[in-house]
Specification:
240 residues, alpha/beta, Rossmann fold, Arc Repressor Mutant, subunit A
């Protein structure tokens, strides 16, 4: 199995770098940091870096120098951060082979998503995303990312429960099915605790796609359906 992808954060303001590193590490990436040019050169010379993000703590010329020296097919993918007024520097960075140039001030979540996209194109992505009505779930990092920008961690039991539904969409799962395939994390959980687990999972995911089939169990209906598709006839349904 391939190791974790490695992202180098170079000359990025400490508060921003800390927040960005937290986002990346929760998504299964390793993060290395360098503040000065000599530290960056040492880090990039050691190889093993997948993506290098060059912040505006360096001059644009210094960032381009690192791109010239360490870029290319065998080197990391580069993202340069520039100020909005530095249009010429932005164009020069792209012409020299930077994969992306991002203007400051940064939206950390957006930058983390851009890095994830570049890693995926290099075959180094670690995300396994599920898109719901009001949130996106990264199954590998067990993160729920809400439209508001808020993120929540799913427990191992909640991930197991969600994967069970994802593996069998539109099929009614009985409580026995659920208890056998995705047992509760507490050893003393009984039949009715399934209801509580489903309620908590729905709330955390902010979804109505997990439907209660009265007298039968639960069913996951993926939120993206062809227009005009009608639900199959069956037992009474409830989202309560």
């Amino acid at each position: 199995m391939a190791g974790r992808a490695v992202v180098a954060l170079i000359a990025i303001a400490e508060v921003v770098a800390s927040d960005l590193a937290d986002h990346l590490e929760r998504r299964g990436h390793d993060v290395r940091t360098a503040r000065r040019r000599w530290e960056a050169e040492s880090l990039l010379s050691a190889k093993g870096i997948d993506v290098a993000v060059i912040g505006d703590g360096m001059t644009p010329a210094e960032g381009r120098d690192l791109l010239r020296i360490f870029g290319g097919e065998s080197g990391p993918t580069f993202i340069l951060i520039c100020r909005p007024t530095e249009l010429v520097d932005k164009v020069l960075g792209l012409e020299l082979g930077a994969a992306d140039v991002v203007e400051s001030p940064l939206n950390v979540r957006e930058l983390a998503a851009r890095i994830g996209g570049l890693l995926a194109r290099r075959g180094r992505g670690t995300q396994e995303l599920v898109v719901l009505e009001n949130s996106t779930v990264d199954l590998r990092s067990a993160l729920v990312m809400h439209r508001s920008g808020e993120e929540e961690q799913l427990s191992p039991g909640q991930i197991a429960l969600l994967k069970l539904f994802l593996a069998q969409p539109r099929r009614v799962l009985t409580r026995d099915d659920i208890m056998a395939a995705a047992p509760a994390e507490s050893a003393d959980a009984f039949d009715r605790s399934i209801d509580s687990r489903i309620v908590r999972l729905r709330r955390k995911l902010d979804t109505e796609s997990i439907i209660t089939i009265r007298g039968a169990g639960y069913r996951f209906d993926p939120p993206t359906k062809p227009a005009g598709q009608e639900a199959d006839a069956g037992p009474a349904e409830s989202r309560d």
